[in-house]
Amino acid sequence: MSVEVTGLTRRFGPGTPALRGVDLSVRTGEFVALLGPSGSGKTTLLRILAGLEFPDAGAVRIGGRDVAAVPARERGVGFVFQSYALFRHMTVFENVAFGLRVRPRATRPTGTEIAARVRRLLALVQIPELERRYPDQISGGQRQRVALARALAIEPPLLLLDEPFGALDAQVRKGLRLWLRGLHDSLGITTLFVTHDQDEAMEIADRIAVLREGHIVQFDEPSALLERPADAFIAGFLGETNQLPCTVTGGQAHFAGLPLPPLRTEAPDGPASAFIRPCDLLAAPAPAGSGGGVVQGVRHDGRALHLRVAAGDVILDAAPAPGWAAPRRGEPCTLRIAAARIFPEGRPAR
Amino acid sequence: MGAAALGPARMSRAVPRPAAADPAWARRVAIALALAVLGLCFLLPLIAVFTEALRRGLAPAVAALTDPDALAAIRLTLLVAAIAVPVNMLGGIASAWCIARFDFPGRRLLTALIELPFAVSPVISGLVWMLLFGAQGWLGPWLQQHGIQIVFALPGLVLATIFVTFPFVARTLIPLMQDQGRDEEEAAATLGASGWQTFWRVTLPNIRWALLSGVLLCNARAMGEFGAVAVVSGHIRGQTTTMPLHVEILYNEYQFAGAFAVAALLAFLALVTLGAKALLERLTGRRASLHP
Fold first, then answer.
1. For residues A97-118, average pLDDT
2. Cβ distance of B186 and A72 shorter than 8 Å
3. Could you report the predicted ipTM of this complex, rounded to two decimals?
4. Nearest to B191 among A52, A98, A136 (CB)
5. Helices H, strands E: what count in chain A?
6. Which of A19, A228, A242, B193 is least surrounded, with the fewest CB atoms within 10 Å of its CB?
7. Strand A242-249 relative to strand A252-254, pairing
8. Which residues, 6+ apart, have CB-to-CB distance to A196 below 8 Å?
9. How far apart, in Å, are the Cα atoms of A22 and each of A39, A216, A218, B26, B156?
10. Per 3-state DSSP, what percentage of chain A is helix, strand, and coil (rounded to 5)?
């Protein structure tokens, strides 16, 4: 089910609004991440979609229908809370059955139908053995699955998840997010999820909306965000990167006080920020006292070597240049920038 | 870090003493003190009430309790509690819901107002109703014209009792509901539940034990209230005297056996209430430990 958001604004008391003029258009069947640092308004946006919060201005259309006057309980939108919000006095079974039991008599399935559907859902989320347990008797990952099964019980065409993996440890988290993506694909629903973890968003989302201070900075596919970041914020927020201040004069960026060669750029003259990915900052061995950097740390992650190089008064993340097989701590080196993104200070580059 | 350099003798002293390792004599003194206060101030009077009541045997005590005035007082006390407690239960749930769930202007004021009955003397709690509804009160003449009797009658007793016992339910529920938050209710809403369904299926089950405990305390206090009720009662024997007032009347008339018999019954009702509350806590505690 498509989601269309235009000019959405929400203000909590005086001060900066939580959302200011958010536009977002999600296609049916898409898996979209709302990514941003805390306080960027992503949860508020999700809650407005669910009808748990109301905008001060702007419109929300779900499946083409304006839902301004539709309360949460009539939207039929599945919502998974960050805290899971399981009903603590009900068993897992009853939690999942809740959405069916509260239906008006005319559309309520019979007891046996409900039981069959709940068991099917519990099998779908792979916890059929837990139906008689209470929420406080199961683990965090299991609660997450119950919350998901409960939200799916009402067969929502749109599923919203608020930090779905936030409270889980790294191992569980990784497995669960791939599984969630698979579930999304097999159910054919539209899913939006809020996260502050870029790896999570990059790994499973079709498109990512990056939010900052209440508006969407860029809404694009993961690869496009990495290759064509809209501004310095996104360039710095996504992926590992070295951010260095520089000065642009006559089409060249100069790094004052750093052993880095000037870099050609199309940015206008003036102060700017350069974003250099570690894999684009190449370190090569150099004789001592040649004025380069010094290797401070070497880390091998199974695929590649990662260097930490002290240069001037900063530490940079770099990669060894081709041919330098065994860099060691304390070795002097030179640095070369293979590629960088330069954004003038204070305004986004387009 | 520094202690390591000072050698073993000093190091042993640097290790903080566990709280449980207070000297044995200090613990014993503290326990003895607590027991002495408990015994002197709570247990002894309770024993005194029951022994006084039964000093001349069971028969006079029974006679004092089956006296028509005493029976009327018992009936009135139960009736007042039967009205005041449900009213306060509903009012308590409503105000706790408002305070715990919504942020509105005046929320702090309302929270403070709920505690007002605990803060002011019960005599004042009675006097306000006299000022409002008494013969010389603001609404007194109008009430008299229309033949409505509030003070020196059942409505006054109920009003005074409601006022004094209002905080019990609300104060038990507010911290619990604040702690539980709105998430579960919001989840119920996204699953299609109406407000009414959410209340019955989610909110109420979550607060039921605390609610019951608050109601029991409220009931104990409603039956035992003296000060506020004394002001609005008018002490019409057999009509507007509740059990506590009846005890006072008998005592002032030197009918000690009767006074203590009624007092013992009142104390017994309070003990039953407390016992029910304790049992409830044990049951809920056991449930909690079953589902850690």
1. 93
2. yes
3. 0.79
4. A98
5. 9, 20
6. A228
7. antiparallel
8. A35, A36, A37, A38, A42, A163, A166
9. 15, 6, 11, 66, 59
10. 30, 30, 40
